[in-house]
Design goal:
Elements: H1 3-6, E1 12-13, H2 21-35, H3 41-54, E2 58-60, E3 63-64, E4 67-70, E5 77-87, E6 97-106, H4 111-123, H5 127-134, H6 139-157, E7 174-180, H7 187-201, E8 205-212, E9 215-217, H8 222-227, E10 230-235, E11 248-252, H9 254-259, H10 261-269, E12 274-275, H11 292-329, H12 334-347, H13 350-363, H14 368-377, H15 393-414, H16 425-465, H17 470-483, H18 488-504, H19 508-530, H20 537-551, H21 559-564, H22 566-586, H23 607-628, H24 632-635
Parallel strand pairs: 1-5, 3-6, 4-6, 7-8, 7-10, 10-11
Antiparallel strand pairs: 2-3, 5-6, 8-9, 11-12
Helix pairs in contact: 2-3, 4-7, 5-6, 11-12, 11-13, 11-20, 13-14, 13-15, 14-15, 14-16, 15-16, 16-18, 17-18, 17-19, 17-22, 18-19, 19-20, 19-22, 19-23, 22-23
Length: 636
């Protein structure tokens, strides 16, 4: 099969009308559905969106290659679309995308289809082809561009093998590489082509093993690995790593193989890689030590956050509406209690869902239930082994999620001996019961008691301070509201302010904690608005919601950001919240209400100063976060 068989004229959009990423995806899918290539629109779209969540397919240089492999595709095809103005597609270089190649592959795509897809993907690293495609006007022009590119490549490759089996015969430096991505129908082969091209330009021999839809191709031999100066792994899925034991190795996402091939080869030749050590010689899933461990943690966190966000946004917005209504209808009105209870119920799932889907990312479906229960325990002020009560909040939820995943993976290895006739017992009995006991025991005997002790110490410390130094106390309380956003520090600060409020009827300290709790979500809203390219699409959408959540004193809106990037988010939030809390006491602001955020502004003393403390603290925190956070592509 040739590329022209995949690039059909009736599957080309020469003037894409979409102006957003979502619109572009829908417009291209509609074309597929109309042509009959895609038989189930929603199933195919789900596959496209799931691939985008793993990492953007906007590879840079104004190109995007969204793709999916599902049983909703009738036959393999590539849809070409061209946008004259460009579309913000979350591309890695931040540039709008003008050329789209949406790939549709059936679950059982044959080798001819897959080889044609690999060939097309490899051609797209040619800058001449890309520039020519940008000036095309008709489908015939597009086909002519690819025919010319194929002919040029065949001429260049006519007298040389793509990957020589006797790579060290000429005395040139030699590198081996592995390229792989989850679907294996585009990025795998673009990275392969880019690495080969870069090595050739540097007069270096290279052999690239691909792990795509066709399976493993150009498999590296033990002799080739032994001779190599170093190893480059550009993969978004696990590949056999133990064979590289003792070699200089770079482990990077597959997109780096496409966009940073020159840099990766230079790093190997300059001995800037990490010496890889495998703990087990037959462990095919062993990861490299130069960052892949943290990449896995980040992916696990993102799985939890993406499932938690709907609860944050939906519950938070409804709860904010209830606070607005409360001013007019009162606390006892059904119009307040109904939306407030709905929002509260949604919020009660935040930490359990976060923990459960972190666990699922690590240990698959068997880890989901222990993770959810462990996360739920982190939110419940239940008596623990030390006979005290406390919640561990989102920090405890993170511990529960990762622990559940690790425990279930341990159980999978521990019960490998179970005969096949009893395999059904493992997911039905062994993993749920033992996994839950292990996670529950960890939370009951260790995590919650530790946080209970922390809570007791913090409360005692605050009580010892008294109210003699109001500004210092306001600064401390405001900062504590942002440390763990619902954990023991946050609860202790809020409880201390409530105690002062109920005993003295003074709302001074209540102003400090309310401002401190409003600032973290407002800071993330500010940062995502001013520095959008430093945040994912999901984070930008959550940032919009956080304007409302922050104004409503719903600190939990910042939890997804704090979970994904705890150091930057928490430190910037604590600084801003501490400043806001201190200013409230310096200006003698008083808020005679235990909740409501800015919706209770009419009740506050020194209303403008209350507003100023919130704005100053939020702007400082947002600016620190936005400036400190690196560009999004550096986090990939």
């Amino acid at each position: 099969m040739e590329i022209r068989d995949l690039l059909q004229k009736d599957l080309m959009i020469m003037n894409l009308k979409a102006t957003t990423k979502a619109e572009a995806i829908d417009e291209m899918i509609d074309k597929y559905v109309a042509s009959g290539v895609v038989t189930d629109r929603e199933t195919y779209k789900k596959g496209i969106l799931e691939r985008e969540q793993e990492s953007t397919t906007g590879i840079g240089d104004e190109i995007a290659m969204p793709h999916a492999k599902t049983n909703a595709v009738k036959e393999a095809a590539v849809l070409f679309a061209k946008s004259s103005d460009g579309v913000d597609f979350d591309a890695l270089d931040g540039k709008p995308v003008k050329l789209f190649f949406m790939i549709a592959a059936p679950e059982g795509a044959n080798n001819a289809h897959l080889q044609a897809l690999a060939k097309l993907s490899g051609l797209l690293i040619d800058p001449t082809l890309v520039n020519n495609l940008k000036s095309t006007r008709t489908p015939d022009d597009v086909l002519k561009c690819f025919e010319d590119a194929e002919a040029a490549k065949e001429t260049v490759d006519a007298n040389e093998e793509k990957q020589s089996s006797n790579v060290d015969a000429d005395g040139k430096p030699f590198i081996v590489a592995v390229s792989a991505c989850p679907n294996g129908i585009a990025h795998t082969y673009m990275a392969e082509a880019a690495l080969i091209k870069a090595a050739k330009e540097k007069n270096i021999n290279i052999k690239v093993e691909t792990n795509g839809s066709e399976g493993v191709k150009n498999k590296l031999t033990a002799a080739e690995i032994e001779k190599a100066d170093g190893v480059i792994v550009t993969a978004d899925k696990k590949v056999a790593m133990a064979r590289f034991d003792g070699k200089q190795l770079l482990n990077r996402p597959v997109i780096d193989g496409i966009n940073k091939a020159d840099q990766l080869i230079d790093q190997i030749e300059n001995n800037e890689g990490t010496t890889f050590h495998s703990t087990e010689s037959n462990d095919d899933t062993e990861e490299a030590t130069d960052g892949s461990f943290w990449n896995e943690i980040y992916k696990d966190l993102m799985n939890g956050i993406s499932h938690m966000l709907p609860f944050v946004v939906g519950g938070g917005i409804i709860m904010a509406i209830s606070f607005m209504l409360e001013r007019y209808v009162g606390q006892n009105s059904m119009w307040f209690t109904f939306p407030n209870n709905i929002g509260t119920y949604a919020f009660s799932f935040l930490i359990p869902i976060l923990a459960g889907f972190i666990a699922q990312s690590i240990g698959d479906l068997p880890a989901l239930m222990p993770g959810v229960v462990g996360g739920f325990m982190a939110t419940q002020a239940a008596a623990s082994v030390v006979h005290t009560t406390s919640v561990s909040g989102f920090i405890g939820g993170l511990i529960a999620g990762f622990a559940a995943g690790v425990f279930v993976n341990f159980l999978k290895k521990a019960f490998k001996w179970v005969p096949k006739s009893l395999e059904g017992l493992k997911p039905m009995l062994i993993y749920p019961i033992l996994g839950l006991l292990l996670v529950g025991g960890l939370m009951f005997f260790i995590v919650n008691p530790v946080f209970a002790a922390v809570n007791a110490w913090v409360t005692s410390f605050l009580e010892s301070m008294g109210t003699g130094n109001a500004v210092l106390l306001g600064t401390l309380l405001g900062g504590m509201m942002a440390i763990d956003m619902g954990g023991p520090f946050n609860k202790a600060a809020y409880a201390f302010a409530i105690a002062a409020f109920t005993s003295t009827k003074s709302g001074n300290l209540m102003a400090a904690v309310m401002i401190g709790g409003m600032i973290p979500p407002l800071a993330t809203a500010i940062a995502t608005t001013i520095w959008p390219k430093k945040f994912t699409q999901q984070e930008r959408e959550a940032g919009i919601s956080n304007w409302v959540l922050g104004l409503s004193f719903i600190t939990e809106g910042a939890i997804p950001f704090a979970t994904a990037d705890p150091l930057r988010v928490i430190i910037s939030s604590v600084i801003g919240s501490a400043i806001g809390g201190g200013l409230s006491q310096l200006w003698k602001v008083s808020v005679p209400a235990p909740h409501g955020g800015l919706w209770v502004l009419p009740l506050a003393d020194h209303k403008l100063l209350y507003l100023a403390a919130v704005v100053i603290g939020a702007v400082i925190a947002g600016a620190i976060l936005g400036i400190w956070k690196p560009k999004l592509e550096e986090n990939k």
